[in-house]
Amino acid sequence: MVLLAAVALTTLLANSATRLRFTALAFFAVSISANVIAAGATTAAQVAVLAVAGLAAAGILFISARDGNYGEDPGWRLWVATLIAAIATPAAFASFRTITGEAVTDLPLFAADSGSVVVQVASFWLLSSGTAILVTARSAVRTSLGALLMLTGVQLLMRYAPGPQLELTIAVAWVELVVALTGAFLIVNERAVRE
Amino acid sequence: MTITIASPLVLLALMAPVVFLVRKVVVLAAVLTLLTLAAAAAMIAIAPDAATAQLLSLELRLSPLGRLAAVALLATAGVIVADVWLDEPAYNFFPTALGVGAVVVAVLLLTTPLATYAVLLIGLLLPVGSFTFQIHRNRSVEAAIRHFAFVSLGGTIGLAALALAASLPRDQPQSTFVLLVVVLYVAFALKLAVIPFHTHAALLAAEAPATALALYFGVLTPVTVIAFVQILTQAGLLPSLLQLAKVQDLLLGIGGLSAVGGALLATGATDLRRLVVCSVISDLGIALVGIGTFSGPGIVGGIAIALATGASATQQLLAAGTLERRADGGPPRAARAPLAAAAFVAGGIGLIGAPPVVAFPGRFYVELMAYSFATWLGAALVLATLLLLIAQLRVALGLFAEGLPSWRPERRPVAGIAGAVIFAGLLAGGIAPDAFLRPIAAFAEEFLRALRPL
């Protein structure tokens, strides 16, 4: 549960950041929290791929800022995005969670649970937050953040999908990198147009 | 070293960064790009039927549809690259075209739905760099950002739906899987820019260069439609669709809306590129109706329309680019570039789906199945076709409004020749439709088996 709170808090930090460099750092924190929360279902190789992808994506956004002042002030969009995420997460969990015969009674404070409830909630939270940020974004800064948060949520959901896990993790990590690179390209161009 | 079915994919993926490094030497970059595309297409064309290979642990398989679509789309990409090289040099375009080529081949060969979808998402983001040009004079950056947002949203939602569908045990309530299919459909609708998710495409049409639009609507859009049906087939989600008739109504409703809405927008289009993009949106709606009928002829027609529309849209967009450039800010006129104007008009025949081009049988099948499903649906598709005919005629008459002072072709008639090559291909397909439709029919059989497993 503490890890879930860490994911929620770091997401809120990323969502509320007005400077792109802070957004990038907060996204890296989200990525780390998400990886820790699903550590039980992740191999060492996957952890390495996910860590590199998270670091690279955050690094690309950090560098694209060019200075510490550039960013997008979310304003009222922060509250709308948070509200949408808060409503959508339980709705998504109720609609799409894995339904088992046993009731989940044991949700450990510091570790992930055996029934993947915490991981699913974390992924739905990231997907909802990312969607809300994307939908309310005005510039490439928050569009990139929203897309990256959603991809982090997808990486969590994929841990329980059968198939070649490492290859799928690498494929989505590449998507993360391409999204970050595209976002950075657009951020630089957008800034050039504005200035 | 042995050549496997993975070789064309690896070749394209490796050559993209090489061409990126030499991109400023335009001739070298263009020649390398064309040779690579040709080599990859040849390797796929001569590969044995149902060839398989492993890439890491991912299985690749060459289906008849995969072969047809890969060769057709790589050839289309080659025509666009030749046009960029000879008519409108843009050095960043060449590595993008190779990246898109690699994505096309990967999507058509991969058999793991999640991997297919992830690769497709990368491919849809690759042209963003080509969408932006002369950023201080136009709104191309805004258009590219909007495209980025729509594709990212649709892409990640779809990826999440697929990951969930794969991870959930099969004893979950059917309604969960039905909901996931609906989410996946909306995700693809966002990426395909079908109505009501088309606003980013309208801005792109107005602001992005014609060649970048051709790469997107001519190559990536058809492969997205094929990826949609392939992923539905491979993910095991199809049987759940039959549980709820309302879902099929939704699929057909969105398809019909896009078909008529796109055609209506096309009739009001104020410029050539917008006309083409709206026509593509309408055709994609018709293709989605075909797929949504869950019938053999409907699926064959839907995929055939997607492929033929891509080729015709490329033909028209390349011609539109030339006509606009030669107009020097004024209205595009055939007098300035007669061959390009002829290519534009001929491309319209393909987008309308008129005989004798190969787009006709596909449209005929879909409209037939739509009528058998519901009279209003068939009537809507016929209305969409009529509106497209009016829209294309209106623009064609506008192009020739001042007549032709002479029948001499323009200097460097690149778009005209490119259009002639594409039209010849579409005509050949129309004369011998069996060669074009049989591989699609083989896939339709696979789709129907997945829909109603024994």
Strand order of the largest sheet of chain B: 1-2
Give the SSE order of chain A as H and E letters.
HHHHHHH
Separate helix tally of chain B: 19
Total beta strands of chain B: 2
Termini gap of chain B: 42 Å
What sequence of helices (H) and strands (E) makes up the elements of chain B?
Answer: HHEEHHHHHHHHHHHHHHHHH
Straight-line N-to-C gap of chain A: 45 Å
* Overall shape of chain B: globular
Strand content of chain A: under 5%
Could you report the average pLDDT of chain B, rounded to the nearest whole number? 90
Low-confidence stretches of chain B: none
What is the helix content of chain B?
Answer: over 70%
Quick summary of this structure?
By secondary structure, chain A is mainly alpha-helical. Chain A is built from seven helices and no strands.
Which secondary structure elements does this structure contain, and how are they paired or packed?
The complex is a heterodimer of chains A (195) and B (454).
Chain A: H1 2-16, H2 20-37, H3 44-64, H4 76-96, H5 117-136, H6 140-158, H7 165-194
Chain B: H1 7-21, H2 26-46, E1 52-55, E2 58-61, H3 64-87, H4 93-109, H5 113-125, H6 128-131, H7 140-167, H8 174-192, H9 199-207, H10 210-234, H11 238-241, H12 245-267, H13 272-292, H14 296-327, H15 338-352, H16 359-373, H17 375-399, H18 414-431, H19 433-451
Antiparallel strand pairs in B: 1-2
Helix pairs in contact in B: 1-2, 1-4, 2-3, 2-4, 3-4, 3-10, 3-14, 3-18, 3-19, 4-5, 4-10, 5-7, 5-10, 7-8, 7-9, 8-10, 9-13, 10-13, 10-14, 10-19, 12-13, 12-17, 13-14, 13-16, 13-17, 14-15, 14-16, 14-18, 14-19, 15-17, 15-18, 16-17, 18-19
